[in-house]
Specification:
heterodimer, A: 186 residues, alpha+beta, four-stranded antiparallel beta sheet, three-stranded antiparallel beta sheet, B: 306 residues, three-stranded mixed beta sheet, two-stranded antiparallel sheet, 8 helices, 6 strands
Chain lengths: 186, 306
Amino acid sequence: MSAAAFNPANAFRFELGRGQITTQGSGPRLLLPVDSITHLLSGLTEEARRDFGHSIGTELGRRAALGLGEVQHASPSAVVDHLGGEWALMGLGSLGMELWGKALVLTVTGSPFGPNGDDFVAAIAQGAVGRAMGRHAVVTPIHRDDDRVRLLASSVRAAERASGLLAQGRNYVDVLQEINRSAESQ
Amino acid sequence: MSVYSTGSTQRVARLEQLLERVRHNAALPRARAASAVVELRSVPGSEYGIDEDLVDVEVEVVEIDVDESAPPPVPAFHAVQSARGPDDFSDLNSELPDGVMPLNDGAEHLPVGRVESSSPPRGMPSVPAGELEIEPGGMMFGEEAAIPLQTKRDSQRPTMESEPTAPTMEQMGATIGLEAGSGPGPELELDMPPLAADEASDLELSLPSRGFAGAYTDDLAPPPSAQEDLASFDQGRPNFANELTADQSAQPGHVEHSAGTSLSPLVVERSALSPTVPVAEIIDNRPREAGSFVSLLDSSLSLSKS
């Protein structure tokens, strides 16, 4: 059974009298300037930034899982629909998905944090996928073009291998081929 | 009072006749002018309130009748006496219209008045007394221009000529009718030639009616250049269909195959969001989409595990 389409209607509730912003099924939210968040991230350690991103993604994944219903049988389209919907409601850009062989790549277009925030975006995606799908996946940025970042969702080992290959200057496509090839050889 | 009530019709008719005569005389050519001051004094003790009042009436005599056969003039005093005898006054009073004060009311044997020639106004020559003649019944109060004083020409007496400084008839209150001009009528000359009938009709425009104030009619024809203007406007902007195609190809969500040597990734991207429609939409029309997202994730997680 396919999940219902993502419905962002009345996703937010602005209570001007109380000065609060709430979402359905969630607590109060904040509308913060991106520059403030960027400035905050610049002062954090890598681990702290990852944890900060995970916390955001966890909440995002929880809401996406509520929309998806039976997550185990949710189609890739439904997951991208709901997960991407929640992603967009938080102003994090447009979420997409690519499948390179067996490698699953998430794409984020229009991230408000820019290239310097790709690690933070990857942490958010990791927390969202982990919370929504109930899987511990390591999300690693493998490619960046003008406005889009590609995030590989893999195991820890595959992520370390991809990072090693990218550090060698390999193309992200080659990295993905290498990962798939090594998996076939096993 | 019975004097005013009886014979009023006759008095009116007679007054009108006198007025006509005055007008007729005023219209005649003026050969010479003379002036005289006639002082009228009413009967003392009269009840009409003009006792002892002297009424100076300046008269410019404009009528000169040249009548050689007329009898020689009489002195003014005698003329007055003859004209203003008690009998004459009774006759005169009976002819007075309403509102005109009689000169003698109940005192017929008293002196009724005198007519004297006084010194003329400054700038006017004196008039010999013998030239004045008062017609019986013609002297009344309240009538300035209708005082029927006439002077008769006496060739043996010096002729009185009006001087330029003498007051005119208008200054003396007389009504003088102007004669019609004998010259050609005035004409207005315009620099513009007269318009023809059809040209004049072109200049006529009808004002819009009140019902069309601030409104318009939808049956008006478009201007003749509307089609050309629309065509030129369309040429200045890209074709909408081409625009749409370009936009669709640029939108995320299209299934693309990367240029990988051996891999052709399945690209699943979200479509553009709209505040009134679902925020995200998966565009993945490939029929070979197998399994669930979890299975795909598990496959990806299985990479390089060993």
